Amino acid sequence: MSKAPKAIKPKERDTIIQALSAGVVPRVGLPHIQVGRAAEIGALLRDVDRIADGGAAVRFVIGDYGAGKTFFANLIRLIALERKCVTVHADLAPDRRIHAGGGQARALYSEAVRNMATRTKPEGGALAAVVERLVTDAVKEASERQIAVEKIIDERLAPIREFVGGYDFATVLKAYWRGSETSNEELKTAALRWLRGEFSTKTEANKSLGVRTIIDDDSVYDSLKSLACLTKVAGYAGLFVVFDEMVNIYKLQSAQARKLNFEQILRIVNDALQGNTSNIGFMMCGTPPFLMDTRRGLFSYEALQSRLAENQFATGGLVDLSGPVINLQSLTPEDLLVLLSNIRNVFAGGDPSNNLVPDEALKAFMNYCDRRIGEAYFRTPRTTVKAFVQLLSVLEQNPGAKWQDLLGQVQIAADLHGQEEMVPEGGPQPGDEDELTSFRIGT
Length: 443
Prior knowledge:
The chain has helices at 10-22, 38-52, 69-82, 104-114, 127-145, 149-157, 166-181, 185-195, 202-209, 220-233, 247-250, 255-274, 288-292, 302-308, 333-347, 359-373, 376-379, 382-397, 403-407; strands at residues 56-62, 86-91, 239-244, 280-286, 325-327, 410-411, 440-441. By secondary structure, it is an alpha/beta fold. The chain has a five-stranded parallel sheet with strand order 2-3-4-1-5, sandwiched between helices. It has a two-stranded antiparallel ribbon with strand order 6-7. The model is unreliable at 418-443 (pLDDT under 50).
């Protein structure tokens, strides 16, 4: 017997529809529309469990434009939250990179930490809650053991001091505790600013917090490792880091800038694969050229190519998901049919009696897309999904309209953003990787 459809809250329904209509990934409600890729999800679940067990992980999620990389990454983030991990995420851009000398790496770190999320605060901005949990638990333990709170704080922060820059990291956390004890909001705010990488000068940090260092371009990765340790001592399972739009490194015109970013990525890969760090995982999303281009991609750096090369036995439809690279498999036509059905269900609020179109409309829509753009309609389904959502929106707002009449008026084209372009370092921001091919429904 099939399960009864689950009702969808109006706010969640509207959020999903608005996001899909604009061609972007919704922040909520992903389980309502998720289909396929069970093997890939299972592999990442094992990574999350490894992080919780004190291990580390690194994954490169590779797929064409519109193939669903961002959706997949957000789904894994939500799963990591359910497994009691803390997540941080950010998109790379010309002004946000993994390595830089002009503040771009610190900007990436700051953006990621501002997006910090926990299971109880999935929308982001959870840094204060994580630090507050550390302080609250320390006060409770001090009361139970009848010893000074500061002694408990020192005991809990001891592991962080072992990291590069960890001593100042611990000092800032103690400053937050002192601010909490004395109701000094200015001190607490300064501590959170430092942890978010928002201090631009050491002099300002020393004056506010008594520390001699700040989180800058050179210390971003080390600070993420210290942050992972903080999440663990605060009672969480670990830290899961998601970097999307990695194609922006590929697009850098400067070969030296690309090399320095590749060296930092190599450091992350080596630490994860060799077990040199703990309770932290990285997921980096990019297009095939970002990985495999031997002139400007990761494979142009020999050490990375040797570590990220595919299993030579995984051919003829066989896959190996144990390595760092996950090539996001295309949805099958059957998967896409289920996806369209799920979207129809979202419009109906989970009530099949409110479906705007019958099953035959789903198949007719897919056949129409197949005739217009070929197999790309399910291989890179973003534009197909956007078209379907907007078709349903028209039907919803015009009760007298018939889907048969509207279908022939849909103007839809394949996603043409697969052609990479170089951009000058520090130059104008290029089109976002997740921009969408435009289409319209004629009137």
